[in-house]
Predict the 3D structure of the following.
Amino acid sequence: MKLNLMPVPAQIKLSDGTYKIDENFSIQIRGETSDRILSNAARLMERLSGRTGMTFKQNYLSFENDVTLPGLILEYDRIGCLRLFEDESYHLNISTKNILLKAQTDIGVLRGMETLLQLFSSDDTGYFFPAICVKDEPRFPWRGLMIDVCRHFMPVDVIKRNLDGMAAVKMNIMHLHLTDDQGFRIECKTFPKLHELGSDGYYYTQEQIKEIIKYADNRGIRVVPEFDIPGHATSWLVALPELASAPGPYQIERTWGIKNPVFNPVTEKTYQFFSRFFEEMAGLFQDEYMHIGGDENNGVHWNSNDEITDFMSKNGMTSILELQNYFNKRILEITSSYNKKLMGWDEILQPGLPKSVVIQSWRGHDFLTESAQKGYYTILSNGYYLDLNHSTEFHYLNDPVPADSSLTPEEQKYILGGEAAMWGEVVTAEIIDSRIWPRNAAIAERLWSQATIRDVDDMYRRLEKMSFQLEELGLLHKKNQFMMLKRLVNNRDITLLKVLVDVLEPVKDYLEYRPDHLTQQSPMTRTVYATEPDSTTARKFKKMVDDYLSMPNQQTGDIEDLLIQWAENHTKLSPIIAVSPILKEIEPLSKNLSEIAKTGLHILEYVKQQKPAEKPSIIKEWQSRIEKAKQPYAQAEIIIVSAIEKLANKLK
Amino acid sequence: MKLNLMPVPAQIKLSDGTYKIDENFSIQIRGETSDRILSNAARLMERLSGRTGMTFKQNYLSFENDVTLPGLILEYDRIGCLRLFEDESYHLNISTKNILLKAQTDIGVLRGMETLLQLFSSDDTGYFFPAICVKDEPRFPWRGLMIDVCRHFMPVDVIKRNLDGMAAVKMNIMHLHLTDDQGFRIECKTFPKLHELGSDGYYYTQEQIKEIIKYADNRGIRVVPEFDIPGHATSWLVALPELASAPGPYQIERTWGIKNPVFNPVTEKTYQFFSRFFEEMAGLFQDEYMHIGGDENNGVHWNSNDEITDFMSKNGMTSILELQNYFNKRILEITSSYNKKLMGWDEILQPGLPKSVVIQSWRGHDFLTESAQKGYYTILSNGYYLDLNHSTEFHYLNDPVPADSSLTPEEQKYILGGEAAMWGEVVTAEIIDSRIWPRNAAIAERLWSQATIRDVDDMYRRLEKMSFQLEELGLLHKKNQFMMLKRLVNNRDITLLKVLVDVLEPVKDYLEYRPDHLTQQSPMTRTVYATEPDSTTARKFKKMVDDYLSMPNQQTGDIEDLLIQWAENHTKLSPIIAVSPILKEIEPLSKNLSEIAKTGLHILEYVKQQKPAEKPSIIKEWQSRIEKAKQPYAQAEIIIVSAIEKLANKLK
């Protein structure tokens, strides 16, 4: 039996037989009951009930503990605490008689419940769980997803459904990037002008934050807030021009990139402000950690402010980074006084920084290594930037502690894990799920499962199952594509457009993917936003070609069918493009797909006959078509070209 | 040019030419600006931007009024007030140069904006609005949708997306059925035990209610709360057993139907409680109306309580209705003191009821007529019960004031309009949209458009366009079906299952649709819940058959194609059913569909050859197969059988 578990547990032992469920299935809770365990048990029953159509006899809104023959026993020693290094291990034993899920904490039980749900199966005898013994615990204690809600605001629902997804793949930290140049997204009662002037009305009320924290807690997930300072701060300075390093007034930024506005680090007013601000936020957010950003301060406004440059020379500071280090230490004093530990992007790793600060590496593995060597706890985000549209494989193989790591085992202990990062420049609530999922499930596995779990094909096989289960939970990565395609063709048939979109991906380069003319107001409804960052069709086609090239005696029927479909698609799609002006920009892609597919058929003929191309001019011609087809348009590119290039290279 | 407007405006005059839009398109607001108008203008820009992919140059987050050449001018005399009889008329004039949308109130402007968005078109020259002049106003001032959030709680998001849908079809009242035997769904600060004990934790906080009211106000929609008393009150009495008519304790009801628990109307404590309760609710809900339910009090607990029967005889009351009338008048005194007008279901129409009370007719047109004749304002819900799964046509042709109405013109003025009713016994957040939409759009048209607009085929034609636009707005009536089918087959291919589901409908009879063994805990994930209440495929098939029978010389290819597809479907679907235990219950439907389709092909041959069936035994055999195929299973029925029966009848 092939299991579909994701992330793969530490130890699995399958036995013979199954545990069958029917309407008598019931749960017994052995441990101090808590909201967390009650509502997760109820949700588990609901999910099983949803899949089986069964009305279970046990009233799962009020679990009694006097069940005589429980189907599932949830046993734990204590209520877990949502903090770093909390025990999340569990032990799941499914026999033909019942299911025992044991853990030290209720959080461990939650992790095990997700494994259990992934084991749920059916055949012609009914619904069942396979008999199995699972012993499991995470490899890293910090397994996060960062969502930037500043560039485009994300309503509470987006956060909630992503928390559901995170819980399903055993992630345990939701990092909310709450402030940036383009938006201040949190209600501040002490300084209400912050959210009033800095958000266009799109911000989380404190009630909503409490709701999110409660929802996350319920799923065993910490919520770490980020207040990005001293740079990336334009939206704050709209309300606080007097704390800026250059004269105001300021307006919310509508475009992307590194901006100049930055807090003035040499006036005491700045720290007086932050003292009151963090006092309020420390009360609102329960987690022991707070993130203060600290990235991409370009120093332009600091260098052009005499007061600031005077302060630097008086204090013997020769670089912007030294001044920022001073700023960070002042902020650290403030947040420490409210019992919060700090974290920041890797720029904050400067001399004299206390060892309690966690470093988040975004610029590269080098900073991760440096942090660990210097004795700072650190997490990896470089290589986990979901907005860069890289393949799942790329993220999956990006290990915080690769096999060839130069770190000593002692140093490796400082590597806490990692965080996927979903920056918000080119996402809306409609498309964000498709940018996070299912790829994030592979990152979750990298951070939970053992380092040796690296079989890419098997990962993709399981990811397809996981993707469906994530949609079942309410994520919209597939569902919304249908609507988007319908909108593009104004409710006409989407079949032909989908053939094209299925082999397109967004370009991987920021410069192309975020062209200058796009602003915060630009719609994310164009074709590129309906493409998958890691095209399933293209991946399967590439695999077919690879398999064929490694064993050329195989049938090529499947490859040809796809090539023929693509070759014929443009002629059929053209009339729809003609009356859908929003599709005009992808006409070259449609045309190029058909042309490269025709070329592909041609090349395939040669490969099949195992004869080299008779004339160099033909190869040259093919090469030029291949280059042409690689050309991106409208921020998207045809992703099957590389497979055709491989075929052509076979003839060289 | 065929327009796709829904509801059809009062007057339309098409001209030659179009108004084309490009990135210079801008809006000018001529009138006192309000949040309502600003956010709707921004949303209009966003929707156009979404459809065209254009980044408009105007910053629609802060409309300036110094636009030199506005594409769209919004002009109105005053900010409208959300109350009965408020002016909602508008005048929309699209020329080749610009668009002028004029109204007396900003609410009228909102109604016109929806018409404008429905006129949006594209062709190979680009995006445009057709030149047109529309003068429009509603036929009825009360055009509502009632949602029961008690039997199954509906999260805020469900309400919000339905408010979006309502606004799109110009409905103006969201009636929230907030309390019933199965749940007390609103936070009560004066008596917190009400929501704490009566809701399983599923209720709206007052903050959420404010959010809903604001969201609705923003769309020109009133929110009318219903507190159903004195019956349908079990969930209140869990917290207030001392106010019940029979001894407690009480528990939240988990099953459906008419229950006995009812408030005690003869103790002053009841009215002391309601005085404080309504004081709080009158402050929370802004609308001038409050709904007190009043339906289906079966009197069992009143008749068995000596104190109550004594009170009745002392006061010369001989019926339960008289006592309830007493109760209603006492409640009316209370709510009047908080400046609220009352409404209730038609049972409350009893002697001496003040004329300020609005009567909602659910039991039949007779009660509507009676109310109007007696001089009470009244609205129709009978015939608009969406949970009964009737066809769109049925609801569409149900007119509050039919052409043959016996009411005088003077009496007709008391008929304010109607309300679609979405009772919550057999819906969840996942399926409720498919029960409300798109059928509710036809009810909205009945209540807005002139009585003469009754072309059913044209309604269905426009409804298909509207259905798509509703999905574009965020409703999930189509989107969620895909997920539901995938869940049923555990992520296998859904094509074959969909062939079957597309010709099934939920049974129309409550008794069958809500079988006794189903409770509040039963999953709404079985096949019946993935069916459309008004099957599009079946409707189109029936139309083909009707067209053919009226002109038998036509081609029958389309009819045969469908029959062949159905005839072959069961054999193909069987292996999927075999491994999906949740589908076992629909196996007879699958089998019967294939059999009746084969019979249909057989009958069609006879009809084509225009020969009567040679043997009576054949007709008898057909008839018995038809009867067999009509048999519902698993609360669903095959809905194309009637068309095959029509074919057979042709041979009689």
